[in-house]
């Protein structure tokens, strides 16, 4: 009989906030093959243009984000509370918080740059 895989239980309020800048913070929960994040963005916060190998699903719980998508950032999508944006691997994207926003991001595989702190594009300079 195989052993039961490690099951973990988390409470968002018990997870430490990684304060990336004055306008962006996040909490992370990481499994073996995926990552779940609460991302807190104040109105006007900018997530700079970037891409990554990770598939991303963004679910807006509160607020709204304006995304600029594609190689030339020519596609614009506004995602509001209750809406979901699926971003395939390696698609260039940028986001702007149109209001104070709570965003749930799911990544597969987990974002190694978020785990090891090498995500300089997000951190306050």
UniProtKB/TrEMBL annotation:
InterPro entries for this protein: Bacilysin_H2HPP_isomerase (IPR052535), Cupin_2 (IPR013096), KdgF (IPR025499), RmlC-like_jellyroll (IPR014710), RmlC_Cupin_sf (IPR011051)
Residue ranges of every copy of the Cupin type-2 domain listed in the record: 38-104
Pfam families: Cupin_2
Residue ranges crossing the lipid bilayer per the database entry: none
CDD domains associated with the record: cupin_KdgF
PANTHER family found in the cross-reference section: H2HPP ISOMERASE
The name this protein goes by in its record: Cupin domain-containing protein
